[in-house]
Design a protein that fits this description.
- With 306 residues, this protein is an alpha/beta fold.
- It has a single domain, classed as TIM Barrel, CATH 3.20.20.220.
- It contains twelve helices and ten strands.
- The strands form two sheets. It has an eight-stranded parallel beta barrel with strand order 1-2-3-4-5-6-7-10, surrounded by four helices.
- Helix 1 crosses helix 11, helix 3 runs parallel beside helix 4 and helix 8 crosses helix 11.
- It starts with 12 loop residues before the first helix and ends in an 8-residue tail after the last helix.
- The relative contact order is 0.17.
Length: 306
Protein backbone atom coordinates (compact mmCIF):
# COMPACT_ATOMS: atom_id res chain seq x y z
CA UNK A 1 0.00 0.00 0.00
CA UNK A 2 2.78 2.42 0.92
CA UNK A 3 2.76 5.38 -1.42
CA UNK A 4 0.82 3.51 -4.09
CA UNK A 5 -0.74 5.74 -6.70
CA UNK A 6 -2.93 3.22 -8.47
CA UNK A 7 -6.62 3.05 -7.78
CA UNK A 8 -8.02 0.05 -5.98
CA UNK A 9 -8.92 -2.83 -8.22
CA UNK A 10 -12.66 -3.06 -8.76
CA UNK A 11 -13.41 0.14 -6.88
CA UNK A 12 -14.27 3.50 -8.38
CA UNK A 13 -12.74 6.80 -7.36
CA UNK A 14 -16.15 7.91 -6.13
CA UNK A 15 -16.52 5.02 -3.68
CA UNK A 16 -13.31 5.77 -1.85
CA UNK A 17 -13.59 9.53 -2.25
CA UNK A 18 -17.06 9.43 -0.71
CA UNK A 19 -15.79 7.34 2.20
CA UNK A 20 -12.97 9.76 2.93
CA UNK A 21 -15.27 12.78 2.81
CA UNK A 22 -17.90 11.14 4.98
CA UNK A 23 -17.95 12.35 8.60
CA UNK A 24 -15.39 15.10 8.03
CA UNK A 25 -14.40 17.35 10.90
CA UNK A 26 -12.97 20.85 11.16
CA UNK A 27 -10.60 22.75 13.43
CA UNK A 28 -11.33 26.30 14.58
CA UNK A 29 -9.38 28.89 16.55
CA UNK A 30 -11.33 31.46 18.57
CA UNK A 31 -14.46 31.18 16.40
CA UNK A 32 -17.08 33.93 16.48
CA UNK A 33 -20.81 33.28 16.65
CA UNK A 34 -21.07 34.12 12.94
CA UNK A 35 -18.39 31.54 12.17
CA UNK A 36 -20.29 28.79 13.95
CA UNK A 37 -23.53 29.85 12.28
CA UNK A 38 -21.87 29.67 8.85
CA UNK A 39 -20.44 26.25 9.72
CA UNK A 40 -23.80 24.91 10.87
CA UNK A 41 -25.39 25.94 7.57
CA UNK A 42 -22.97 23.68 5.66
CA UNK A 43 -21.93 20.88 7.98
CA UNK A 44 -24.02 17.79 8.77
CA UNK A 45 -25.53 17.74 12.28
CA UNK A 46 -23.09 16.38 14.82
CA UNK A 47 -19.99 17.34 12.83
CA UNK A 48 -17.00 17.41 15.22
CA UNK A 49 -15.56 20.89 15.69
CA UNK A 50 -12.10 20.82 17.25
CA UNK A 51 -11.39 23.97 19.26
CA UNK A 52 -7.73 25.00 19.30
CA UNK A 53 -6.07 25.70 22.62
CA UNK A 54 -4.07 28.89 22.96
CA UNK A 55 -2.01 29.67 26.08
CA UNK A 56 -4.75 31.98 27.38
CA UNK A 57 -7.71 30.07 25.94
CA UNK A 58 -8.19 26.91 27.97
CA UNK A 59 -10.77 28.22 30.41
CA UNK A 60 -13.86 30.40 30.17
CA UNK A 61 -13.49 31.34 26.49
CA UNK A 62 -13.12 27.72 25.40
CA UNK A 63 -16.25 26.76 27.35
CA UNK A 64 -18.13 29.59 25.67
CA UNK A 65 -16.94 28.43 22.24
CA UNK A 66 -17.93 24.86 23.05
CA UNK A 67 -21.40 26.05 24.08
CA UNK A 68 -21.82 27.86 20.74
CA UNK A 69 -20.83 24.71 18.87
CA UNK A 70 -23.22 22.54 20.89
CA UNK A 71 -26.10 24.99 20.46
CA UNK A 72 -25.56 24.86 16.69
CA UNK A 73 -26.12 21.10 16.70
CA UNK A 74 -22.43 20.27 16.24
CA UNK A 75 -20.02 18.30 18.45
CA UNK A 76 -17.46 20.35 20.41
CA UNK A 77 -14.03 18.74 20.77
CA UNK A 78 -11.79 21.11 22.73
CA UNK A 79 -8.02 20.79 22.68
CA UNK A 80 -6.48 20.14 26.07
CA UNK A 81 -2.87 21.34 25.96
CA UNK A 82 -1.18 19.56 28.87
CA UNK A 83 1.65 22.03 29.43
CA UNK A 84 -0.73 24.98 29.75
CA UNK A 85 -2.24 23.82 33.04
CA UNK A 86 -0.62 25.18 36.20
CA UNK A 87 -2.18 22.48 38.37
CA UNK A 88 -4.39 19.43 38.34
CA UNK A 89 -7.06 21.60 39.94
CA UNK A 90 -6.98 24.00 37.00
CA UNK A 91 -7.50 21.12 34.58
CA UNK A 92 -10.37 19.77 36.70
CA UNK A 93 -12.00 23.20 36.72
CA UNK A 94 -11.67 23.45 32.95
CA UNK A 95 -13.20 20.02 32.42
CA UNK A 96 -16.06 20.83 34.78
CA UNK A 97 -16.70 24.11 32.98
CA UNK A 98 -16.72 22.38 29.59
CA UNK A 99 -19.13 19.72 30.83
CA UNK A 100 -21.49 22.25 32.39
CA UNK A 101 -21.47 24.63 29.41
CA UNK A 102 -21.61 22.16 26.52
CA UNK A 103 -21.81 18.58 27.84
CA UNK A 104 -18.35 17.93 26.40
CA UNK A 105 -17.62 14.22 26.19
CA UNK A 106 -14.52 14.14 24.01
CA UNK A 107 -11.32 16.13 23.65
CA UNK A 108 -8.06 16.26 21.72
CA UNK A 109 -5.16 15.86 24.15
CA UNK A 110 -1.88 17.46 23.06
CA UNK A 111 1.33 18.45 24.80
CA UNK A 112 1.12 22.11 23.81
CA UNK A 113 3.67 24.37 22.14
CA UNK A 114 5.39 25.76 25.20
CA UNK A 115 8.78 24.24 26.09
CA UNK A 116 8.40 24.54 29.88
CA UNK A 117 5.25 23.10 31.48
CA UNK A 118 3.23 25.52 33.58
CA UNK A 119 2.43 22.73 36.02
CA UNK A 120 2.50 18.96 36.57
CA UNK A 121 1.71 17.81 33.02
CA UNK A 122 4.71 17.70 30.72
CA UNK A 123 3.10 15.68 27.93
CA UNK A 124 -0.20 14.50 26.54
CA UNK A 125 0.52 11.08 28.03
CA UNK A 126 0.88 12.46 31.56
CA UNK A 127 -2.48 14.17 31.26
CA UNK A 128 -4.18 11.05 29.89
CA UNK A 129 -2.66 8.96 32.70
CA UNK A 130 -3.85 11.37 35.42
CA UNK A 131 -7.33 9.84 35.66
CA UNK A 132 -8.89 13.29 35.49
CA UNK A 133 -10.41 12.85 32.04
CA UNK A 134 -12.61 9.83 32.70
CA UNK A 135 -13.33 11.20 36.17
CA UNK A 136 -14.79 14.32 34.56
CA UNK A 137 -17.05 12.53 32.08
CA UNK A 138 -14.72 12.45 29.07
CA UNK A 139 -15.41 9.28 27.09
CA UNK A 140 -13.25 9.66 23.98
CA UNK A 141 -9.99 11.37 23.17
CA UNK A 142 -7.91 12.20 20.13
CA UNK A 143 -4.13 12.28 20.07
CA UNK A 144 -1.70 13.65 17.49
CA UNK A 145 -0.13 11.88 14.51
CA UNK A 146 2.60 13.13 12.17
CA UNK A 147 2.72 11.87 8.56
CA UNK A 148 5.58 14.28 7.82
CA UNK A 149 7.37 13.56 11.08
CA UNK A 150 7.90 16.01 13.92
CA UNK A 151 10.54 18.76 13.69
CA UNK A 152 11.73 18.17 17.26
CA UNK A 153 10.90 14.52 18.04
CA UNK A 154 12.49 11.45 16.44
CA UNK A 155 10.17 8.95 14.76
CA UNK A 156 11.05 6.22 17.29
CA UNK A 157 9.92 8.43 20.16
CA UNK A 158 6.71 9.31 18.35
CA UNK A 159 5.95 5.62 17.86
CA UNK A 160 6.69 4.84 21.51
CA UNK A 161 4.52 7.72 22.67
CA UNK A 162 1.57 6.55 20.56
CA UNK A 163 1.95 3.00 21.90
CA UNK A 164 1.87 4.30 25.46
CA UNK A 165 -1.18 6.47 24.79
CA UNK A 166 -3.05 3.55 23.25
CA UNK A 167 -2.28 1.41 26.29
CA UNK A 168 -3.13 4.02 28.93
CA UNK A 169 -6.34 5.09 27.18
CA UNK A 170 -7.51 1.48 26.95
CA UNK A 171 -6.92 0.96 30.68
CA UNK A 172 -8.86 4.14 31.42
CA UNK A 173 -11.78 3.08 29.22
CA UNK A 174 -11.26 6.02 26.87
CA UNK A 175 -12.01 5.52 23.18
CA UNK A 176 -8.96 6.69 21.24
CA UNK A 177 -8.48 8.10 17.76
CA UNK A 178 -5.62 9.90 16.01
CA UNK A 179 -5.81 13.31 14.37
CA UNK A 180 -2.82 13.96 12.14
CA UNK A 181 -0.96 17.18 11.55
CA UNK A 182 -1.85 18.58 8.15
CA UNK A 183 0.24 17.44 5.20
CA UNK A 184 0.44 18.41 1.55
CA UNK A 185 1.73 15.05 0.34
CA UNK A 186 -0.54 12.06 -0.35
CA UNK A 187 2.27 9.44 -0.47
CA UNK A 188 3.54 10.56 2.96
CA UNK A 189 0.04 10.23 4.36
CA UNK A 190 -0.39 6.80 2.77
CA UNK A 191 2.95 5.60 4.14
CA UNK A 192 2.04 6.78 7.63
CA UNK A 193 -1.36 5.07 7.42
CA UNK A 194 0.31 1.83 6.33
CA UNK A 195 2.84 1.71 9.16
CA UNK A 196 0.42 2.87 11.85
CA UNK A 197 -2.33 0.57 10.59
CA UNK A 198 0.00 -2.42 10.75
CA UNK A 199 0.58 -1.72 14.44
CA UNK A 200 -2.98 -0.67 15.34
CA UNK A 201 -5.48 -2.25 12.92
CA UNK A 202 -8.51 -1.02 14.86
CA UNK A 203 -7.42 2.56 15.51
CA UNK A 204 -9.56 5.26 13.83
CA UNK A 205 -7.76 8.20 12.27
CA UNK A 206 -8.68 11.66 11.07
CA UNK A 207 -6.34 12.72 8.28
CA UNK A 208 -5.42 16.37 8.73
CA UNK A 209 -5.53 18.55 5.63
CA UNK A 210 -5.48 22.32 5.24
CA UNK A 211 -8.77 23.77 4.05
CA UNK A 212 -9.07 26.37 1.27
CA UNK A 213 -6.83 29.38 1.80
CA UNK A 214 -4.30 31.56 0.08
CA UNK A 215 -1.27 29.45 -0.76
CA UNK A 216 1.07 31.95 0.92
CA UNK A 217 -0.96 31.51 4.12
CA UNK A 218 -0.70 27.73 3.85
CA UNK A 219 3.05 27.87 3.38
CA UNK A 220 3.39 30.17 6.40
CA UNK A 221 1.48 27.75 8.63
CA UNK A 222 3.40 24.78 7.21
CA UNK A 223 6.70 26.38 8.15
CA UNK A 224 5.39 27.33 11.58
CA UNK A 225 4.14 23.80 12.27
CA UNK A 226 7.18 22.01 10.89
CA UNK A 227 5.28 20.43 8.00
CA UNK A 228 7.54 19.40 5.12
CA UNK A 229 6.48 21.74 2.36
CA UNK A 230 7.87 23.90 -0.37
CA UNK A 231 6.33 26.28 -2.83
CA UNK A 232 6.73 23.64 -5.54
CA UNK A 233 5.37 20.83 -3.36
CA UNK A 234 2.43 22.92 -2.23
CA UNK A 235 1.43 23.72 -5.79
CA UNK A 236 1.93 20.14 -7.01
CA UNK A 237 0.15 18.30 -4.20
CA UNK A 238 -2.34 20.80 -2.87
CA UNK A 239 -3.67 22.27 -6.08
CA UNK A 240 -2.76 25.93 -5.66
CA UNK A 241 -3.93 27.85 -8.70
CA UNK A 242 -2.36 30.80 -10.43
CA UNK A 243 1.28 31.67 -10.26
CA UNK A 244 3.48 33.93 -8.25
CA UNK A 245 1.68 37.25 -8.13
CA UNK A 246 3.30 39.96 -6.10
CA UNK A 247 5.27 37.35 -4.17
CA UNK A 248 2.21 35.31 -3.14
CA UNK A 249 0.32 32.41 -4.61
CA UNK A 250 -3.35 32.59 -5.45
CA UNK A 251 -6.19 30.61 -3.93
CA UNK A 252 -5.47 26.98 -3.03
CA UNK A 253 -7.93 24.18 -2.31
CA UNK A 254 -7.28 20.58 -1.21
CA UNK A 255 -9.24 19.01 -4.09
CA UNK A 256 -6.16 17.56 -5.74
CA UNK A 257 -4.82 16.12 -2.50
CA UNK A 258 -8.16 14.53 -1.60
CA UNK A 259 -8.39 13.11 -5.13
CA UNK A 260 -4.89 11.65 -4.80
CA UNK A 261 -5.79 9.96 -1.53
CA UNK A 262 -9.00 8.64 -3.05
CA UNK A 263 -6.97 7.03 -5.86
CA UNK A 264 -4.75 5.13 -3.42
CA UNK A 265 -5.47 1.68 -1.97
CA UNK A 266 -6.08 2.59 1.66
CA UNK A 267 -6.86 -1.02 2.53
CA UNK A 268 -8.20 -1.56 6.06
CA UNK A 269 -8.20 2.16 6.80
CA UNK A 270 -11.02 2.80 4.36
CA UNK A 271 -13.75 2.30 6.96
CA UNK A 272 -11.90 4.06 9.78
CA UNK A 273 -10.36 7.06 8.05
CA UNK A 274 -12.05 10.44 7.71
CA UNK A 275 -10.74 13.87 6.80
CA UNK A 276 -10.05 16.68 9.24
CA UNK A 277 -9.70 20.23 7.91
CA UNK A 278 -7.68 23.07 9.40
CA UNK A 279 -9.61 26.24 8.61
CA UNK A 280 -6.78 28.67 7.90
CA UNK A 281 -8.92 30.43 5.32
CA UNK A 282 -12.02 30.68 7.52
CA UNK A 283 -14.49 28.21 9.02
CA UNK A 284 -17.42 29.00 6.77
CA UNK A 285 -15.24 28.89 3.67
CA UNK A 286 -13.79 25.51 4.70
CA UNK A 287 -17.22 24.07 5.51
CA UNK A 288 -18.71 25.24 2.23
CA UNK A 289 -15.88 23.64 0.26
CA UNK A 290 -16.09 20.37 2.26
CA UNK A 291 -19.85 20.16 1.86
CA UNK A 292 -19.64 20.67 -1.89
CA UNK A 293 -16.74 18.25 -2.25
CA UNK A 294 -18.56 15.58 -0.24
CA UNK A 295 -21.62 15.96 -2.45
CA UNK A 296 -19.55 15.66 -5.64
CA UNK A 297 -17.72 12.57 -4.42
CA UNK A 298 -20.94 10.96 -3.22
CA UNK A 299 -22.18 11.27 -6.81
CA UNK A 300 -19.00 9.65 -8.12
CA UNK A 301 -17.78 12.82 -9.80
CA UNK A 302 -14.06 12.25 -9.57
CA UNK A 303 -11.10 14.14 -11.01
CA UNK A 304 -11.79 15.66 -14.40
CA UNK A 305 -15.53 15.04 -14.20
CA UNK A 306 -16.65 18.30 -12.60
Amino acid sequence: MAGAAAARSGESYGDQGARLMRDWSVEATLPKADDIEALAEQAPPGTPVYLSALPKNHGVRMAEDAALVRAAGLEPVPHLAARNYASAGELEATLARLRAAADVRQALVIAGDRDDPAGPFDSALSLIASGLLEGSGIEAIGVSGYPDGHPKIHADKLEAALAAKVEVAAKAGLALHVVTQFSFDAPSIADWLASTGAAYPDLPVRIGLAGPAGAATLLKFALRCGVKASARGLRRNFGAVGGLVGGAFGEATPDRLVDSLAAMPLDAWESRAALHFFSFGGIGRTARWASEKAARDAQGRGPGND
